[in-house]
Amino acid sequence: MTSDLSRREFVEKSGLLVIGFAMSRSLRFAPGEAKSAVLPPAANQVDSWLTVAADGSVTVFSGKVELGTGVSTALRQIVAEELDVPFERIAWVQGDSDRTVDQGSTVGSQTVKRGGAQLRQAAAEARAALLELASAKLGAPVDNLVVANAVVSVRGTNDRHVTYAELIGGKRFERTVSGKAKVKAPSEYKVVGKPMPRVELPAKMTGRHVYVHDVRVDGMLHGRVIRPASIGAKLLSVDDSALRGVRGARVLRKADFLGVVAEREEDAIKAAKAVKATWSESQTLPDQQTLHDTLMRIPATDRVSTDSGDVPASISRAAKKVSARYRWPFQMHASIGASCAVADVKRDSATIWSSTQGAHALKGALASFLGLAPESVHVVWTEGSGCYGHNGSDDAAADAALMSQLAGTPVRVQWSRADEHGWEPKGVAMVMDVSAGLDESGKITGWDYAVWTPTHSSRPGGGAGSANLLAAQLAGAVPASRPSLGGDRNSRHTYAIPSTRVVAHLLESAPVRTSSFRGLGSPQNSFANESFMDELAVAANVDPVEFRLRHLTDPRAIAVVRAAAKLANWQPRVSHATSSTKGRGFGFVQYEGTEAYVAAAVDVDVDESAHSVRVTRVCVAHDCGLIVNPNGLKNQIEGNVIQAISRTLKEQVSFDHARVTSLDWRAYDILRFNEIPESIEIELIDHPEAPSVGAGEATSSPIPGAIANAIFDATGKRLRDVPLRL
Amino acid sequence: MIKLVVNGTPHEIGAAPDTPLLYVLRNDLGLTGPKFGCGLGQCGACMVHVDGVAVRSCTTPVSSAARGAITTIEGLGTPDKPHPVQQAFIEEQAAQCAYCINGMIMATAALVARNKQPTREQIRSTLNANLCRCGTHMRIVRAVEKAAALSLAQGSGGDDD
């Protein structure tokens, strides 16, 4: 069973009845019978994590899900390694609120780090149990047993062996995950560290992989949401007289939530256009030109995360003083597939297919939204388009759930492109101020940093319940007030400076709905820090790589900086700051100050008369501890590089005083094939002795500053506002 | 009723003539390989071949597509017997979420059927109106180069015969 999510496996693992549909490439489900209440599996039980079937195949139950980053392959490698079973005999169930452990949402580059550590312990515990069973069966002490490919043998014998299937096939372990089971030493690894091909790619490359967009339930109607004319608009009246011309279409409404359903998808689209809704509009958004000034006036809670030494004195007494302000715009996750969900809501229970990052959190939010007991709501995670954070997936699930409840039938909701661009929670606009002093020798004496940031987290569930879901807000819920989160990520850089002060002004509100987008505040803060390091290097008349090295003490940080410089054949010199068509810049970040180390050298071609910048070459050195799958890791690094170039050079959400106005791919364009670098070169620094940390986000952080620095190197122009425009 | 031939099989569909081909493929025929991305013809996720030409099925009325032979990604190859382009994409591990990949593969298959040795510039220009958000572009370009080489070696590349 190597195909990750073949239709058959999907149906088997979903535990739902499949209805034959000979030609269908999609999944069809019979509408579920009212489900009995189910509690999620307990994290401290081996049986919650994995089973061994009578035929010896292993099924793993992972609360962490595949967002397109390859984690379902990497996590399989960890289990195959620790359990000593063949990689290809492991089947995978993920993100099912009834059947997988609540490991928290799949966020923050934590899946291999935390989810992998949990699975490793569970697999080690299962292996220990199997060895004890084998010891009794074979009459040999555990220390005399060896395991290979799910077969336990007595060391030095040919005929004394027993398979996992014979030991426990089809039965439960009934064993607690003690956390004390012995795990393998990295030197013993045979599967971890190998570039295993992604398990689900053959199905994805041949159109057989099942995305949430492909789920079909018998009796299902197609739904579309009619979005408010502006942010915060109230629905005054609905004229559905034109619907009479659209087959089987009808309007569904609850307070300001307005949608249509029809039997055929194209009819639902026509119906959504045919309905005439009148909205009371209000102008709640600031002038885009002065957005950042507006942000700085929003009431805030100030948090000082670092305050060492006498910062004002250390800067005022310095030989040279430098200060700068950097700005970052609102950006979009901009998933290629507009969000989609399918819901089958009954009187006492509900099943929702969703590409949410947090099946368990969404389950709680939807239960409260639908007025059902949490145990009666089943969220079946199904892969979506890459999300890079909190996109429209959860909101689409709530749309589908509400419409199914109102319609009394299963409903599939597919967002339009304008829905996604206009209403997905936005990546956060921020302002960053930095001042620093340099002494005579070119060392930084003091560093004063301030950031103004709305929250980077408005996910549903937890304390917020359903209030953060768009449908719930339209139906009358008041958005939950949550503390501003994530905006100070990497506000404190990794350089050793005697006096440092870092303050985050955590804004209590934002003009548009904001939430987690790859790296949270780290790309923004790192853009400021790494641009400013370059400004200081210029002021100190020192090569920018050398300047960084003078202020770094951590050997792993120094190693990635040196490795990236070497990969790029970096020639030490002070930035040219002259008119030229070519430049190179450098950036370094230790993600979150505790996670992956990444350094990047970026080459650009600029054409000042055409106001164009093209990144031509990127060299990255990357250290995330133990590498589980080097090919998957490189794929993530490359993706972060391309996406970060796009965010840095091209992307910003446009809005007028009432609404987001960049509603398609022309208005919000992303990096295209004609704009990609000629090469992205990567050096992976493996540290098998160090725990794996995440790699899903880290490389997005050093790239923006490195690009700005390269542009300065070419032109002498210091660009401090993203998107960088010459 | 509209008659159309998809992946070599004839069908009769009771859809309005102006229905975008994409919805007929996905909802009437259960061919969900072509993806809905934008409905505007801007991203390429919905690409299929009509008489060997890569078209955007989200903005192509079923009535006009029905005049030609339609091929979807499911008709190119299977996991066990992939088309050379699919094989190349698998070998290069040229995907992350892969939501865009239907379009990348269909555009590539149409390209290499006509041009056995596309230059890197031709590849980029062919794919320039296909969007990928995961940033898998470098691998996709490598996969297209490999696909061309595989197709040349196998004397294949056409998919609509």
Question: Could you describe the 3D structure shown?
Answer:
With 726 residues, chain A is α+β, with helices and mostly antiparallel strands. Chain A has 18 helices and 26 strands. In chain A, the strands form 7 sheets. A 7-stranded mixed sheet of chain A has the order 11-12-9-19-16-17-18, sandwiched between helices. In chain A, strands 14-22-21-20-15 form a 5-stranded mixed sheet. In chain A, a hairpin with a 6-residue loop joins strand 6 (151-154) and strand 7. Residues 1-26 of chain A have low confidence and may be disordered. Chain B is 40% helix and 13% strand. Chain B is built from 7 helices and 5 strands; from the N terminus they run E-E-H-E-E-H-E-H-H-H-H-H. Chain B has helices spanning 21-28, 62-65, 73-76, 84-91, 101-114, 120-127, 137-154, and strands at 2-6, 9-13, 47-50, 53-56, 69-71. In chain B, helix 4 (84-91) crosses helix 7 (137-154) and helix 5 (101-114) runs parallel beside helix 7 (137-154). The model of chain B is unreliable at 157-161 (pLDDT under 50).
Q: What does the secondary structure layout of this molecule look like, with pairings?
A:
The complex is a heterodimer of chains A (726) and B (161).
Chain A lengths: L6 H8 L12 E3 L16 H4 E3 L5 E5 L8 H13 L6 E5 L16 H28 L6 E4 L2 E4 L6 E3 H5 L32 H5 L9 E3 L3 E5 L8 E6 L10 E5 L2 E6 L2 H10 L1 E5 L10 H7 L2 E9 L2 H6 L3 E9 L11 E6 L4 E5 L4 H12 L6 E5 L11 H15 L3 E4 L2 H7 L6 E9 L5 E10 L16 H5 L24 E9 L14 H19 L3 H7 L4 H13 L14 E9 L6 E11 L4 E12 L6 H20 L29 E6 L17 H14 L11
Chain B lengths: L1 E5 L2 E5 L7 H8 L18 E4 L2 E4 L5 H4 L3 E3 L1 H4 L7 H8 L9 H14 L5 H8 L9 H18 L7
Parallel strand pairs in B: 1-5
Antiparallel strand pairs in B: 1-2, 3-4, 3-5
